[in-house]
Structure formats: C-alpha cells, structure tokens
Design brief:
Radius of gyration: 22 Å
Order of helices and strands: EEEHEHHEHEEEEEHHEEHEEHEHHEHEE
CATH architecture of the largest domain: 4-Layer Sandwich
Number of helices: 11
CATH class of the largest domain: Alpha Beta
Number of strands: 18
C-alpha cells in the first residue's frame, strides 16, 4: 500500500514557545506533499525534518490568524531564491489572499514562479482541490473569524490483477486495463470469466481530517464521520473551560467527544496553549472518553 502520512511541523498555539512551533503540517501521498497551515518558522521546520521543498505544490490555510499564516511570506521568498519554476497553489480564505498579495507586491516582485490563489469559502463544505491521488474538502469550523479545516480523501484504487488467473485464462495484456476497470473477460470460446475471478479488491481509500482552531461544535461530525485519523485542536484542558469558550477553542475532552461521536479510528491532539508545560495531561483527559489518542509533537509522523 502506498504511504499516506502526516508530518507535524508545529503544534503550538498563538504564542511560540521553546517546546512547540506554531501550527504547520505536511501531508504526503504518492510522493506529493501538501502543506496545511504555515505558522512562523515553518520553513525552518521543513529544513529540520528534511521536507523536500520541490515536491510541495499546494498550501492550505485555515484562517487569517498569524500562528497559521505568518510563515508564508518567508517560504514563498525562499522558493524564489531556490529557483522554483512550477506554480504554487495557495488555497485560502479571501482575507489571507489580501494579506499575502500586499506582501508579494512589496517583497516578491520578481519571483521566477507564479503564486496562484484559490479563494475558498470557510463557511461551506465543498471540494477545493483534486488531483490523481486525492480530493480535498473544506470543513466549516466555529472560531472568532471565518475558519475551516480540511478533509483529505484518497481516491479509490483499481483492483489488483491476480497474475495466476491471467496466465491460466491466457488474458491478453490489452485486456488488463478493461478488467481493472470492472469488465469481464470473454475467451476465444465465448466463455465469460467474471471480473472478480481475475482480480482482488484494492485496499479501502484512506482519509485524514484536520480541524484547526474551533470551539466545540457537533456540526462537523457529518464531514468527518469514520475518518481514519482526526487531528482536532485541544488548546485547553477542562479546568480552563472559561478561557476556551472566551477564545473559541476546544479542550482535550471536547476533542475526544467529537472523535467518539464521529466514529473516527484515531484522534490526534494539538494546538496546545503555551500555559501548559506538560502535554501528557491532554492525553489523560481525552482518554477518559476516547481510547485511541495520540499527542502531536514536532517531528511526529502519523501513518494513515
């Protein structure tokens, strides 16, 4: 099975600390890289964890708060100094495009490549990108400003050919693409060989949901139902619930409740407030409701 994985570059919240960098993640599938959010220092984290800059063509920004987008100007500039030629696609709310466009005019006038903005509506659930490997959808969230998460859904693979059966029935090579697409094979004698006798099913397509800054809201459940892995912000612990409500963030326990209601296979916590020195309390709190919990940390690789 092809690798589908997520690299955590930063899992802190608004204030950077010596323990955690601001939010940034890299999703990798079939040798393609997709960057989710780009907090301050993201390009340094990419260097630290040996992310191949040239394989990154799409960036997804959840909202216009600095800890999710202040790293973009530097990254865009560095791409130019490295001689990038291919287009860079940034999928973001309109406010992020306005912020970046002004900076590009002042500091990136002679880029050797094109920055292409795909303006998204964070209040809608819709497909915003599609390539040969996957489709990406927005997940409307509930924060102080318009914010969305992102759902990465792998496209279904074609069934696997059973070589022994192909040889047994003397199936010509020209027929194999049709069989992979569901066609039966007819021998020279007119005998129909069912498609499912010549193939075995491919692995089920995988999915990853990224829910950044948001207060507790069950409205996201239909969009993330049954995903293989859910990253849900857990800025606070339950003891600081008043602060969570005030800032439109979630607690670790609330993230676990969402994971349980949505029937996800694994929950990843992150976006920790700088007030906490020990993040293990987040895992302890969430595991009282949902058992399969992982604490995000810089350098962590999550295999989907």
């Amino acid at each position: 099975m092809t690798d589908f994985k997520v690299l955590i570059l930063g899992c802190g919240s608004a204030t950077p600390t010596i323990c955690h960098a601001p939010t940034a993640q890299v999703v990798e599938l079939r040798n393609k890289l997709y960057l989710i959010d780009c907090g301050e220092g993201t390009q340094l984290q990419m260097r630290r964890y040996k992310v191949h800059f040239k394989r990154l063509n799409h960036v997804f920004i959840s909202h216009l708060h600095g800890d999710h987008c202040f790293g973009l100007p530097g990254l865009i500039s560095t791409f130019g100094m490295l001689g990038r030629k291919g287009d860079l696609f940034i999928h973001c709310p309109a406010e992020v495009e306005a912020f970046l466009s002004a900076i590009l005019v002042q500091f990136c006038k002679e880029l050797p490549y094109k920055v292409c903005f795909n303006v998204i509506d964070p209040n809608r659930h819709e497909m915003i990108m599609e390539d040969r490997s996957l489709c990406v959808y927005t997940i409307p969230l509930k924060h102080r400003i318009p914010t969305c998460g992102f759902l990465f859904r792998e496209k279904p693979s074609e069934p696997h050919i059973i070589r022994e059966m192909i040889d047994y029935y003397n199936v010509p090579l020209r027929e194999i693409p049709k069989i992979k697409q569901g066609a039966d094979f007819v021998t020279e004698d007119g005998v129909v060989i069912p498609h499912n006798r010549l193939t075995r099913p491919a692995a089920l397509p995988r999915s990853y949901a990224f829910c950044s800054d948001t207060s507790y809201t069950t409205s996201i459940i239909p969009y993330i139902q049954g995903v293989d892995c859910l990253y849900h912000e857990s800025t606070f612990l339950e003891k600081d619930m008043p602060r969570a409500k005030e800032t439109f963030h979630s607690t670790a326990l609330q993230a676990a409740k969402i994971a349980l209601k949505a029937g996800v296979k694994q929950l990843v916590l992150g976006h920790y407030s700088a007030r906490y020195n020990d993040i293990h309390s987040f895992k302890t709190e969430s595991e009282t409701t949902f058992p399969k919990v992982v604490l995000s940390n810089e350098g962590l690789i999550i295999r989907i």
